[in-house]
Design brief:
The chain folds into 3 domains: 85 residues, Rossmann fold; 61 residues, 2-Layer Sandwich (Dna Ligase, domain 1), CATH 3.30.1490.20; 190 residues, 2-Layer Sandwich (D-amino Acid Aminotransferase, Chain A, domain 1). It is 30% helix and 27% strand. The strands form 3 sheets. Strands 9, 10, 11, 12, 13, 14, 15, 16 and 17 form a 9-stranded antiparallel beta sheet that branches. It has a 4-stranded parallel beta sheet with strand order 3-2-1-4, sandwiched between helices. It is globular and about 60 Å long.
């Protein structure tokens, strides 16, 4: 049965993704509560209530869920006991089994491999000696990522030929990790899939093309300029993953396009994704509205782009030395829009917002977004 306004949606996590999901939900007439360790989190000004509790706190998750008609999330790293506590009081979408798979990079890789999805060479490593063996087997260059925790390049490093694997393993805290073969990339892309409650419907967005700097997303353009066969294959892979997971909600599938034409899966994120912020500018249904629709068992929205759009992430470096970025200058660029996340305390590398733009072509949209960012 549909969960209709003015029902209450609970969100595990009150960061910028929770904030933007809450804004979409409120525009549709829903009430929103979030759980976050920070009572002054980014979502606080736009929600009805913040439950200040750890993501591992079953009591906090139960308190949130008891007050809500459905619970979703903006962050994967929620403790298993907290997930179970939420599910005991309200529908949890996506469900705990999806989260159990994606929370651990080793389990995620094994699940993808077992279900026949294309991956680069990888190895699960528990010791420095195992990492050294992986470097010989699938190297010489590797990316080493801790199995749990870490995002935006955190808890991962590149191991080049000649680097000391024992030192690298120590730098990762001697934690169980996944060693991945460094690949000859043409580009990085992602595909967002929405699947309704109970699998009632599935929609697949066009792929976004993404560019990372220091392993953090710098800009993204939607739709990406890709050959039609790559678009079809990427959408087919992403939809297949969502179906096999029996997803309820939305899922971003990060992929690599290699120079030899192969398309490989990188990682999964069952939540709103930075690379689809441009959906607020150039899609009839933003990723945030689509999440609300999917978890509330509403009809899914259209995804065919109305116009190309692009975003550039804004980091705390722009506020260095207490300066205020020149937002007025940035917004002189035609088709530009500013999105700030309301975070307190700008610091280098911290995502504070993004600036987006639309254009007649993906290239024009990206150029406008980059021009706007350069004027800040």
């Amino acid at each position: 049965m549909p969960i209709l306004p003015p029902a209450t949606i609970g969100i595990l996590g009150g960061g910028q993704l929770g904030r933007m999901t809450a804004l979409a939900a409120r525009s549709m007439g829903y009430r929103v509560q979030v759980l976050d360790p920070d009572p002054d989190c980014a979502a606080r000004p736009v929600v009805d209530r913040v439950v200040a509790a750890s993501f591992d706190d079953p009591a906090g998750a139960a308190e949130l869920a008891r007050a809500c008609d459905v619970v979703t999330l903006e962050i994967e790293q929620i403790g298993p006991a907290a997930l179970d506590a939420a599910l005991a009081h309200a529908p949890l979408r996506p469900g705990p089994e999806v989260l159990r798979i994606v929370q651990h990079r080793g389990r995620q890789k094994r699940w993808l491999a077992d279900h026949g999805f294309p991956l680069g060479a990888w190895s699960l490593v528990d010791t420095a000696d195992a990492l050294a063996a992986a470097a010989k087997a699938i190297g010489p260059a590797l990316f080493v990522k801790s199995c749990q925790g870490g995002y935006d390049g955190r808890s991962q490093l590149r191991l080049a030929a000649g680097d000391d694997p024992h030192l690298a393993f120590s730098q990762l805290g001697e934690r169980q990790s996944v060693a991945e073969q460094a690949l000859d990339l043409e580009l990085e892309l992602s595909v967002l899939v929405a699947r309704g409650a109970g699998g009632s419907a599935v929609v697949t967005y066009p792929p976004a093309v993404n560019h990372h700097e220091r392993q953090i997303l710098a800009w993204s353009v939607l739709p990406g300029e890709l050959p039609p066969d790559v678009v079809r294959e990427a959408q087919h892979i992403a939809r297949g993953i969502a179906e096999q997971l029996e997803l309820e909600g939305i899922l971003a599938v990060e992929m690599f396009l290699l120079r030899d034409g192969r398309l490989l899966v990188n990682e999964l994120a069952p939540r709103p994704h930075n690379s689809y912020h441009a959906s607020e500018l150039g899609s009839p249904t933003s990723q945030f509205e689509q999440l609300v629709r999917s978890v509330c068992a509403l009809p899914l929205g259209a995804v065919a782009p109305t116009r190309p759009a692009a975003i550039v992430n804004l980091f705390g470096d722009l506020w260095d030395g207490g300066r205020t970025p020149d937002f007025a200058a940035a917004l002189t660029v035609p088709g530009s829009r500013l999105f700030l996340y309301g975070k307190r305390g700008a610091r280098a590398g911290r995502k504070m917002g993004h600036i987006g733009a639309v254009g007649e072509t993906p290239a024009e949209a990206l150029q406008r977004a980059r021009d706007a960012a350069a004027r800040l």
